């Protein structure tokens, strides 16, 4: 049986929201200096949790904080960010689960509603070669803040994954999906198997209704 394992990123593989971590990193480094930006960022993340985030507006807003930074400069910051801020927050159970699929030859995809320039380096750090995030337009080696391609948020995750599999002509008989968020319910319904990780209340209720396996991962698992 052909199998595919698909993972959300934030609060699923790592014990944090990488977008908020990124904002905190930029603040600590003095790259952003306006406290109002931090407050607005947290409000937008609250909108995400409530399922009402305007992704285009959020990405345009967040890119403003980077001013005239080039793509190369941002990549340099992200490399340091990935090692210093994200790596310590990877769930040990996530590492074990990814290793299990790799050992058994099951392809793995990470798909996230975080910016692509963050998602791909984090995925690489986790040993995952296929990853999709929010793609952003680049002009003259600078991000414009405009979205491009399929937006990997809510129903867009399904569209992005289905489009990718169609291009690859790979139609797995079994698609296993791991997530923490009710925003991913469209992809949960697309998958054949769903495993929730520290599910939010709405996803937890749906998991109980559907009989999906519910996992609780922590940074210090009892049996580690």
UniProtKB/TrEMBL annotation:
<dbReference type="InterPro" id="IPR023214">
    <property type="entry name" value="HAD_sf"/>
</dbReference>
<dbReference type="InterPro" id="IPR036412">
    <property type="entry name" value="HAD-like_sf"/>
</dbReference>
<keyword id="KW-0378">Hydrolase</keyword>
<keyword id="KW-0479">Metal-binding</keyword>
<dbReference type="GO" id="GO:0046872">
    <property type="term" value="F:metal ion binding"/>
</dbReference>
<dbReference type="InterPro" id="IPR050582">
    <property type="entry name" value="HAD-like_SerB"/>
</dbReference>
<keyword id="KW-0460">Magnesium</keyword>
<dbReference type="InterPro" id="IPR006385">
    <property type="entry name" value="HAD_hydro_SerB1"/>
</dbReference>
<protein>
    <submittedName>
        <fullName>Phosphoserine phosphatase</fullName>
    </submittedName>
</protein>
<dbReference type="Pfam" id="PF12710">
    <property type="entry name" value="HAD"/>
</dbReference>
<dbReference type="GO" id="GO:0016787">
    <property type="term" value="F:hydrolase activity"/>
</dbReference>
């Amino acid at each position: 049986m052909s199998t595919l394992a698909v993972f959300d990123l934030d609060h699923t593989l790592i014990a944090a929201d990488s977008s908020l971590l990124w904002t905190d990193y930029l603040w600590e480094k003095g790259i952003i200096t306006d406290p109002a930006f931090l407050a607005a960022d947290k409000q937008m993340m609250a909108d995400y949790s409530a399922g009402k985030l305007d992704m285009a507006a959020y990405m345009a807003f967040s890119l403003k904080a980077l001013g005239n930074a080039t793509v190369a400069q941002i990549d340099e910051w992200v490399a340091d960010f990935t090692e210093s801020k994200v790596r310590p927050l990877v769930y040990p159970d996530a590492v074990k689960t990814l290793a299990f699929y790799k050992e058994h030859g099951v392809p793995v995809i990470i798909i996230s509603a975080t910016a692509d320039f963050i998602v791909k380096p984090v995925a690489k750090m986790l040993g995952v070669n296929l990853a999709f995030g929010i793609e952003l337009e680049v002009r003259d080696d600078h991000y414009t803040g405009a979205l491009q391609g399929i937006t990997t948020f809510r129903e867009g995750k399904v569209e992005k994954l289905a489009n990718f599999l169609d291009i690859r002509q790979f139609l797995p008989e079994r698609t296993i999906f791991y997530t923490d968020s009710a925003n991913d319910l469209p992809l949960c319904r697309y998958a054949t198997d769903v495993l929730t990780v520290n599910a939010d209340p709405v996803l937890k209720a749906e998991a109980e209704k559907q009989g999906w396996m519910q996992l609780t991962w922590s940074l210090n698992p009892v049996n580690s």
